[in-house]
């Protein structure tokens, strides 16, 4: 990402804020500077014994996120791009429409689970609402979209692994799964998966929040209790289209974000920094970190292949939070069924990249399970997101 291209998108992004243009520009530039000063980015590195390099773990613990650079291959990015084009071609012509622009059955039209999250262009659809137990309490500024902008845009594709084999193969990335095992334990379990689409001049905001609901009052709460997300970037992310975080807040328990904003007198929270990525970078982001993203008033799109994992001990036997799936008890059987996506992902990736050593998921060794990605498997995973495990 060149300095010139970042400067251009910052200028374009700030211009949408009218009288606040100067202060928004300063905020974006200062956040960018501090982001690069954090020392929490670089390639995936393991030591000779297979352990994650301690410098990475230290920086992740200190900041709550780490940018792994150049993780995805050029051919992977091309695969994701092709799947994205297919998904966008199959979207409903408007919310709840059963058909796409070609008159065909639209993506997700025959699914029981919700598959798409819509928003008004440049809006903040969650801020100030009761969604997800009211965790998005700060309403972000909603810049005015262009006169010819569509009435509604798709912000999230939910249960994305059933719509994109390229995303499924990213989910099975051996180094990322090894990181998940070393951080959450070898018996780590899935959370949920989405494709985040934020087109320039259209992409909606996601208001400041901390993920996680169920464990804030637990005496055993620590910095990893609510798990983490991987965020793989197709095009990269910049200060205008990317996620912003407040480093270190993953260790502070449940914070009153509304008070932080009120005390600051602005939605642009002090101490926040943007997560800066190039194409193919993958971020590990602690779910307890205060984070959010502004409307994409810039020049470049952000498309994120987003997927998360939990510790088994944080999930098993728990009644779920109820906003990613129905609030049912997360039994070992439910966990086993949901974890099959890991098995399918590992095999799908091995078929695409046969020279790569596949990851071996310990629970499958103990149970003797094996999974093969084929047409039968594709049919079986329809609506798999009904089994998402939200804590």
Distance between the termini: 35 Å
Helix/strand/pairing class, anyone? alpha+beta
Name the overall outline.
Answer: globular
* CATH fold name: Jelly Rolls
CATH class: Mainly Beta
Q: What count of domains describes the coordinates?
A: 1
In N-to-C order, the SSE pattern is HHEHEHEHEHHEEEEHEEEEHHHH
Q: Roughly how many Å is the radius of gyration?
A: 20 Å
Query: What is the average of the pLDDT values?
Result: 94
Query: Unreliable segments (pLDDT under 50, ≥5 consecutive)?
Result: none
Helix content: 25-40%
Percent range for β-strand residues: 5-15%
Tally of DSSP β-strands: 12
Count of helical regions: 12
What does this structure look like?
The chain has a single domain, classed as q2cbj1_9rhob like domain (Jelly Rolls), CATH 2.60.120.620. With 391 residues, the protein is an alpha+beta fold. The strands form 2 sheets. It has an 8-stranded mixed β-sheet. The protein has a 4-stranded antiparallel β-sheet with strand order 6-11-8-9. Strand 1 (41-42), helix 3 and strand 2 (65-68) form a beta-alpha-beta unit. Helix content is 30%, strand content 15%. Helix 1 runs antiparallel to helix 2. It starts with a helix and ends in an 11-residue tail after the last helix. The radius of gyration is 20 Å and the shape is globular.
